[in-house]
Amino acid sequence: MSADFKSPEDCASMSEVREGVDATDRQIVELLDRRFGYMRAAARIKPTREAVRDEDRKANVIDAAVKDAGARGLPADVVADIWERLVEGSIAYEFEIWDRIRK
Predict the structure, then answer these.
(1) What contacts 80, CB < 8 A, 6 or more positions away?
(2) Which residues, by range, are in coiled-coil regions (predicted)?
(3) What's the pTM?
């Protein structure tokens, strides 16, 4: 893990846990920034507005996250809920960008 915070297994106090959670949250936001960058790229590349929503792709993305969560011993139902929201939010964002760049 990073020198800025301890691994969960090495935490001995709630202060250390909170430092790790806060650092992890910052990393998650950084990854979301990258993910939404890909949504901007998709909006730029997709030739039609109808191409923005792809239900098969959505299902595959959520299924992959749930399988990965299960393999890691994480609560698959929670991950499914998070990814449903993430993917729907990404689609909404991509629609917004698609419309904006084609005005």
Answers:
(1) 62, 65, 66
(2) none
(3) 0.90
